[in-house]
Every structure is written in C-alpha cells, then in structure tokens.
Specification:
By secondary structure, the protein is mostly helical. The protein has helices at 8-40, 64-81, 87-103, 108-113, 115-166, 169-180, 184-187. It has one domain. The model has no long low-confidence stretch (mean pLDDT 87).
Length: 188
C-alpha cells in the first residue's frame, strides 16, 4: 500500500496564492466602490482662485487626486470666508469677545445679538462646514490609499505563494544538505 505524502510547503504556497488573489480583488472592489460613490455625488473640483485655478479645476471628483484637490480648494475658500481664521481660532475669538462684553456690563441677551458675536458665529459655521467637507474628502483619499496597498500586498502574496509552490521537497532537502555537508579536507 503506497501513501502519498502532501508537501506542506506547496499547500502553504497555494493558500498564500488564494489569499493574495482575495486581497487583490478586495482592494479593487474597494477602489471601485469609493470611485462610484464619489462620482454619484457629482462634485466638480472648484478653482482655488480665478488667477490660479489649479490643474484639476473643473474636473469631476472621482479619484484620489481630484478628491485631494477639492479638499484643498475647500480649505482655501473656507479660510477666505472666515477671514483667514480657523474654526478653533474663531471659537477663541468669540469667547474673548463675549467675556469682554460681559465684563463691560452687556446683558446675555445683548451679547447673543451683538453684531460681532453673530459675525464670528457665522464665520465659525463656515469654517466648521469646510472642515467637515475636507475630512470627508480626506477619508476617500485614505480609502484609495488603503485599497492600493491591499492590491499591492495581494500581488506580493501571490508571487510569494507561487515561489513556494515551485519549491519541491527535493530542492529544499538538497539545498539543506549542500549547506550542511562539510568537505573532508576541512576536517583535517
């Protein structure tokens, strides 16, 4: 009765090839899903300024580069709408103005309707919306990067698995024997 012995290296190689193929397909599906969702939003990259619109201005947001370009355009416009101040800076300005008004004897009702306080609140809302939109676009940029990473690792895994499948048991044994064998003249 003869029994066939399975080569564990070959089995591991086949499993790694399967894992690599799965990773490549999963990365491709993720890339396609993010692209489809961005296209469905019908976003067009805004010009940063009329003088310097940017290379990707007026192109549809459908990939990592256009999403990044749109995030930068939003940053520019949000800062312009908030007089160059960030969300956090505007919050600190509003707090300081309210404290100053309260110290001067202004009532809470008058502070809430003060033109300066209202203007800061409006600018802060603009900065906040810009930050949220940028964060959403950066999430898609990160998703594209992770999808590309998974696809690249899938290819590397498949190549590694292919190499393991091609290694035979005799190759491993003869390579090990060649390294262990000591020439007789070296022992003298």
């Amino acid at each position: 009765m003869s029994t066939t012995k399975t080569n564990p290296v070959k089995l591991i190689g086949l499993l790694i090839i399967a894992a690599g193929a799965f990773m490549f397909v999963a990365g491709g599906v993720t890339w396609n899903l993010v692209t489809t969702q961005l296209k469905a939003e019908s976003i067009t990259v805004a010009a940063v300024t009329p003088e310097n619109p940017g290379r990707l201005a007026d192109k549809p947001v459908a990939g990592p580069f256009t999403a990044y370009a749109q995030a930068n355009a939003i940053k520019h416009h949000a800062l312009a709408g908030a007089n160059g101040r960030t969300y956090a800076q505007l919050g600190a300005d509003a707090t300081a103005l309210k404290a100053k008004l309260a110290a001067g004897g202004t009532s809470v009702a008058d502070i809430a309707t003060n033109k300066g306080v209202v203007a800061l609140a409006d600018a802060r809302t603009t900065a906040m919306n810009g930050s949220f939109l940028r964060a959403s676009l950066f999430s898609s940029v990160i998703s594209f990067g992770v999808a590309a990473l998974v696809m690249g690792l899938g290819i590397l895994f498949a190549l590694l698995g292919f190499a393991l499948v091609k290694i035979t048991a005799t190759t491993v044994i003869s390579s090990a024997s060649a390294r262990i064998a000591v020439p007789s003249h070296a022992m003298a």
